[in-house]
Amino acid sequence: MSKIEKMSILGVRSFGIDDKNKQIITFNTPLTVLVGPNGAGKTTIIECLKYICTGDFPPGTKGQTFVHDPKVAHETDVRAQIRLQFRDVNGGMVAVQRSMLCTQKGKKTEFKTLEGVITRMKHGEKVSLSSKCAEMDREMISALGVSKAVLNNVIFCHQEDSNWPLSEGKALKQKFDEIFSATRYIKALDSLRQVRLKQAQNVREYQVELRYLKQNKEKAQEIQQQLTEKETQLAASKENVQLIENQIAPIEDRLSEIDKNLDKVTKLDMDIKSLESRKKQMEEDNRDLEETMEQVFQGTDEQLRDKYNNHQRVVNEKERLLNDRQREVERVNQHCQKLNRQKSEMLIEQGRLQVESDRHQDNIRRRDSLVHSLARHLELDGYERAPFSDRQFDSFRRQLNVRLEQEKEAANKLLSEYTDNEAAKQRQVDELRDKKTGLERTIELKTDIQSKRQAELTNIKVGLQQLEGSSDRLQELEQELNKAERDLDHAVTSSNVAVLNTEVADLRKEKENLDRSLRKLDQEMETINTHTTTRTQLEMLQKDKADKEEQIRKIKSRHNEQLTTLLGYFPNKRQLDDWLHAKDHEVNKTREKLFKLNKELASAEQNKNHITIDLRTKDQQLTTYEDKLFDVCGEEDFESNLYKLQDDIEKTSKQRAMLSGATAVYSQFISQLTEDNEPCCPVCQRIFPSEADLKDIIDDLQSKLRLVPDKLKSAELDLKKKERRRDDMMGLKPIRETVVELKEKDLPELRNKLQSINRDIQRLKSDVDDVETQLASFMSQERSAKSCLPDISHMERYQTDLRDVERKIAQQLAKLQGVNMNRTMQQVNLEKQEMSLQADTVSNKMELKRKMIQDQQEQIQLQKGTVNEIRAEKLQIASNMQRRQQLEEQIVEYSTEIQSLQRDLQEYREQLSPIAATLDKLRQEKQELMERKNISYKEMQDKINEVKDKAKNIDAFAREIERYIKERKDEHKERKESELQDTTTQLNEAEKQREKMHKEMEGMRKDIDTQKLEERWLQDNLTLRKRMEELEIVETKRKEYLKEMGKMGVIQLRSERQQLEERLDNFKKNRNLAQGRQKGFEEEIIHFRKELKEAQYRDAEEKYREKMIIIRTTELANKDLDIYYKALDQAIMRFHSMKMEEINKIIQDLWRSTYRGQDIEYIEIRSDADENVSAGDKRRNYNYRVVMVKGDTALDMRGRYSAGQKVLASLIIRLALAETFCLNCGILALDEPTTNLDRENIESLAHALVEIIKSRSNQSNFQLLVITHDEDFVELMSRSQYVEHFYRVRKNIDQCSEIIKCDVSSLNTHV
Fold first, then answer.
1. 3-class DSSP assignment, residue 28
2. Please, what sign has the CA dihedral across residues 647, 650, 656, 658?
3. pLDDT tens by residue, 1228-1269
C-alpha cells in the first residue's frame, strides 16, 4: 500500500532558488493541513506533487512559467528541483527526484527538463534508475498503484479543474473513461468489431472469387486436353516434313552443280560477244580516224614520235609566253578594281560631307528665325534682320537670361502675397473653430449630467413607492419567525442522528469484514484456477515436446544422405552456412572468370562485326568505283584509255589549229597562183606545165577552202566533247588510285584480320563452355545445400524450442509439488455466494439507516432554511425604512440641479448658431483666395516655360552650328574633292594599258591555234598505230574463248536441269502443304499455352483449393471473434455497473451527511449504455451525467446548481472516486474545498471529512491533504483527535514561499 512521506521544493514558482530557501514538508497520517493567504504558494505544493508523480505541468502552464522566473531572481540560469520520498505498493522505500533548468537569453526564456532519478532500497542497498534508462512516469504510476487518470483527476486534482464532474458531456465522458481505464478495453472491442466486419466482407468477396476460380479451373483443364491433342498432331507432321527434306537435298545439290557449269558457259558467251563488239568498234574507230586525217605519216614510229616532241616544245613555249601576259593583265585588272573601289568610297564620302554642309546652313537659318521671333515677342531691339553674327547671338542670350530672372521674381512675389493672405484667413478660421468646439463639448457634458440625474431621480421615486406598507409586513415577519424557531427546536429535540450513525458505523465494520472474506475467497478461487491451468499447460508442453522431437527426426532422415554426400557429415546451421559461404565464393570466382571470358568474346564478336562491316563497306566501295570506271572506260584499262583520249585531244586540237590557219594559207596560195604572171607551186616552187593543171590546182584549193569552215566547226565540237571526257576521267583518277589500294592492300588486310578473329572466337567459345559447365556444377551443389538450409534452420529452432519446453515442463512440475487439491472450485464458489448474500443484506441495512439519518437531517435543514429566510427579509425591510428620509432629500436636490442644467443648455445653444455662420463664411473666402492664387501663378509660370522652351530650341541649333565649325568640315570637304580627281586620272591610265595588253594576247592565241592543227595531225597518226596493235590482241583472245566453250556440253546440261527442277517442284509442293498444316498446329499450341499462362488459368486448381481453405478458416475465426466479443463486453459491463453502484452509494452518504440545504435529497452519477451489442454492431458508449434527486424526480445538475452546490458536488464525487479506485493508494489532496460554501455547509464538510478520516483510520496508508486559507475550517477539523499541528505557508522578507510547522493552538493568534 503506497503512501507519501516527505517532499522538498526548490526553485518552483515563488519558492526560492538557494539551498537555504529549500522547503521540506512531512506528510502525516491520516491528515495533513496547510494554511496560508492567497498567493503564498499553497497550490504550488499540489502542483509539485502532481508533477513529481506524473510529469505533467499544471493546466495552462508551460515549463518556463513553472520554474522561478530568472528575471525576478536576477540570475541567468535558475534550477528547480523537486524530491519526494514515499512507500510503494509493496511497502518499499522509494525516493524520486525531478530537475528543471530555465535560462534567460535576452527577452526569450528557454526551458529544459534535466535528468530524473528514482532510487529504491533492494537487499539493503540503494539502486538508482535514471530517466535515460526508463520512463519515469510509468515507473511512478506502477509504484503508486493507481492510474495516471486517477492521479490527475482525483488524487492531485488542480484547483482550476476541481469542478470537472459538472463539465459538459464530452469532457465528462473522457474523464470517466480514463478513470475506469475502459479506453483500452473499448478499443479492443472496437478492433474486434472492425476485424469481424472486415472478415465478413472478405468472406463475401472470397465466395465471389471462388465461383470465378472454379470456372477458370474447368476451362484450364479443357485447354490442357486440347493442347495435348495438337502436340501429337504436330509431332506426326514434323516427321512427314523431315522425310520430304531428305529427298529434296540430293536434287538441290545436283542442280547447284549444273547451275555453276551453266553460269560458266554464260560468262564465256558474254566475254566472246564483248570481244566481238569491241573488235567491231575498234575497226570503225580506225576507219573514222583515217577519214579525218588528210594523209597518213609514212615514216617509222620513232620518226613520228621525234617530230611530235619537237612540235610540242615549240607550242609549250608559246603558251608560256601567253600565260605570262595573262598574269600581267590580271595584275592591271586588280589595280583598276582597287582604283574603282577608292573612287566609289570617295564619292560616298563627298555626298555625306555635302549633306552635312547643307544641314549646317539650314541650322543657321532656323536659329536666326527663332531669335528674330523671340526678340519680337520680348520686344528686344537690334534683331530685326538676319543673319546674325556670333556677337549679336551672345548679346541676345544675355538679354534673354535677364528677362527670365525678372519674370521669376515677379511670380515669386505674387505667390508670397497670396500665401500671407491665406495664412491670415486660416488663423481666423482656427479661432472660431476652437470656440465652436468648446461650446459643443460643454453642451454634451451638461446633457450627460442632466440624463444621469433624471435617471437617479426616477429610481429614488420608485424606491419610495416600494417602502409604502413596509411596517405591516415587518409585524407579520416577526410572528412567522417565532413560529419557525419553535418548529426548529422541536425537530432537533426529536431527532436520533447520533444513534443511527453509531449503527451505520457498526454495519460498515461488518461489511468490511465480509468484503475481506470475499477477497480471500477470490484469492482461493484464483489459486485453484491457477493450478488447473498449470496441469493443462503441462500436458500441452509434453505434447509440444513430442511434436518437436518428431520434426527433428523427419528433417534428419530427409536430408542426411544429400548433406553427407556434399559435406561428408551432417552439419548444423553454422557449419552449413560456412560451407555455403565457401561455395558461394567459388561460384562468384567462376562467374567472374565467365564474365571476363564473355566480355572478351563479346569484344571479339564486336571486332568481328566491325571488320565484317568494314570489309562489306570496302567491297561495296570497290564495286561502286569499278562501276564508275566501267561507265567511263568500259572494259579498257583506265590508264591506256586516258592516254588514248589525251592523244585524241591533241590530234583534234592540232586539226582545229590546222583548219584555223588553212583559210589564210589556201587564200594566199590561190592569190599567188592567180596573180603571178608565172605561177608556180607555193610549196615546192614547181612551174605548172599547163593552164589546165593550174586551173585544177586552183579549183582543188577553192573546194578545200569552202570545206574548211564546216570542218573547223566539227573539229571544235569534237575537241570540246573529248576535253569534257578527259576532265571526267581526270576526276576519276583518285578513284582509280583508291581501287588499286583497296584491291592490293585494304581488302587483303581485313580478310586476314577476320580469319584471326574467327580463330580467337572459336577458342573463347570453347573456354566459355568449359567454365559454364563448371559453374553449373557449383551452382547445382549450392542449390542442393540451400534447399536443405530452411529445414536445418527449422531443426535448430526446434532444438532450441525443445530445450525451452523441457525447462517449462520442469517449472510446471515444480509448481504442482505439495499442492492440496481437496477443495474444489464448486465448494469455494458456493461459500462465496452465501457470503455475498450476507454482504448485500448488510448493505441494505446500512442504506436504510442512512436514509433515516438523511430524512431527519433534511427536516432540520428545512427548518433552518425557513428561519434564515424570514430573518433576512426582516433585516432588509428595516434597512430600507431607515433610508426613506435620505431618499426624499435627494429628490429635492436632483430636481433643482436638473432645472439649472436646462437653463445653461439653452444659453449655450443660442451662442453656437452665429459662430457657425461666421466660420462657414471665412472658409468660403479662404477657398476663393486659394483659387485666385493658383490661376495667377499658373499664368505667369506658363509664360516663363514658353520662353524657356524657345530658348532651349535656339541653344540646340547653336550647339550644332558650333560643333560643325569646330570640326572644320568645310576644309575636309575640299580635300576629299581633290583626292577624287587624282584617283579618276589614275583609273583612266590603267584602263588604257589593259586594252593594249588584250590586243597583244589575241595575236598570240591565233598563232598557238595554227600550231595545234599540226600537233593534232601527229597525235592522230600515233593513235592509229596503237589501235592496230590492240585490235590484233582482241582477235586472239576471242578465238581462245570460242575454243573453250566448244568443249562443254551445254545442251545436255540444260535438259538434265529441266528434269531435276520438275521433280524438285513436286517435292517442295508436298513439303509446303505439310509445313502449312504444321504452322497451323504450332499456332494453336502457342495459343493454348498462352491461354494457360494467363493469370486466370495459371495454377487455377491450386488457387481454387487455397481460396476454399481461406473461406472455411475465416468463417470459423469469425464465429470465435463474435463469442469473444460478447464475453469481453459482458465482463466490462459487469465491472462498470459494480463500480458505479459502489460510487453512487458513497456519494449519497457523503451528500446527506454534508449538504444542509433542503432542495436536493442526494446526487448520483448516471451512465447510459446501449444493450444487446455484438461484434457486428457499433461498440457500446457510456454517456455520463450528474443528476440531483428530489423525491421521485431526477434532474441534470449541470446548469441548475449554485456556486456552492457545484463545489460541494465536485468534492463529494472526488471523495467517492478516491474511496473506490484508490485501494492501493490512500492519498487525497483537497485544494480550497470551502470555496463558495456558506458557513453551515463548511461546518458539515468539516464534519464529513472527520467522519471519513475516522472510518479510514484503520487503513495505514490513508492520507488526506487539505489546503485552505479558512482558519475557521481548520479549527473545526482540529476538534477531532487527528489534527495536532498544521503547516503555515507564507512569504518571507525576500517574497519567497516558506513552509512552517505550527501547533493547532496558534490558529487564531497568527497576524
1. coil
2. negative
3. 888 888 887 888 878 887 887 887 777 777 777 778 888 988
